[in-house]
Amino acid sequence: MRWNLRAVGLILLVSALGHVCWAQRSAPSSPDVVTRSFYGWYLQQIAADHHPLTDKDPRLRKYVSAALLREIRRQMASPDGLDADYFIKAQDYRNEWLGKITTSETHVRGGIATTTVTLGDTLESRHRLTVRLVREAGVWKIRKVQRAN
Q1: What are residue 135's phi and psi, to 5 degrees?
Q2: Which residues of the chain form beta strands (DSSP E)?
Q3: What angle do CA 89, 93, 94 make, to 5 degrees?
Q4: CA atoms of 40 and 38, how far apart (whole Å)
Q5: For residues 76 and 56, what is the distance between their CA atoms, to the nearest angstrom?
Q6: pLDDT digits (tens, 9 = 90+) for 126-145
Q7: Sheet order of strands, 139-147 included
């Protein structure tokens, strides 16, 4: 009998720990974390000569809202096209941006968040963007990117 109680207790403990770990892993990341993660991944892709937008990389959906992807694809297909990369607001990236991604000034109001992203860490390489995110299916996703003032 004593062994059965210990076994049941151990099973309950393992189950509770598993639930806590699962909840932490499935909890939505903050807008800052999503933004830094996206730009880290995106810049690595560009550096490796992969272009997620033109290659229609399905991993974009992890970070970018469905509405924004539709808008970008519509713009790309239009006669004017895009004159710069939508997410970096530049025609090319700088090697100095790789691994030098920070966010600051994050404001959350309901299901909308705005953060400032800085690519690069020197005065010469610094490139600032304002990124708006929305909650889509419980996950923060990028909805709009603009050059920061």
Answers
A1: -85, 120
A2: 101-109, 112-119, 127-136, 139-147
A3: 130
A4: 5
A5: 12
A6: 999 999 999 999 999 999 99
A7: 101-109, 112-119, 127-136, 139-147
